[in-house]
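Structure tokens please, single chain.
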Amino acid sequence: MNETVKNIVTRKSCSDFKPEHISREELEEIIEAGLNAPSGMNSQCVRLIAVQDDETVKRLSGLNAAIAKEAMAKINPAMAENFPADPFYGARDVIAVVADKKGGTYIYDGSLAMGNLMNAAWSMGIDSRWIHRAKEVFDTEEGKKILEKCGITDDVEGIGFCILGHAAAEKEKTEIKPNRVFYL
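Here you go.
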């Protein structure tokens, strides 16, 4: 198995991070991989917001948690009560992926960028996890202010948050469910 395929098939999501940042150089290398993800018609509509500022990471996690709890409370109040206070699991570094809605395949393009970010991180010995609700976070007034602070004025939609760091504990790889491939 070549090294690229090996990294892809061994990658796992992390849900408990050490309280330390990755280096700026590591972050930039991961970002480079995200920027080089394929995009429909080469639209390059994806924008990446790299956050290493502890206060901003905590605020994004807090917004995410509030949105999740509110949505869950409507479906299952008990589940909302047990939702983690920090949906970023203690990660100190985050790359928010947003995409310009003018790109016809912007959701897919953002998803490909997200995959590249996580696979690149894993290949470098850095753990990651895709956290949802970026759409809802960047639809809030506070989320819009963060976009504005970055100079993002396009009509964008949040695709996801790629949280990064080093795992606090070893995690077992999830078993792959059978009967999901069909050959014709």
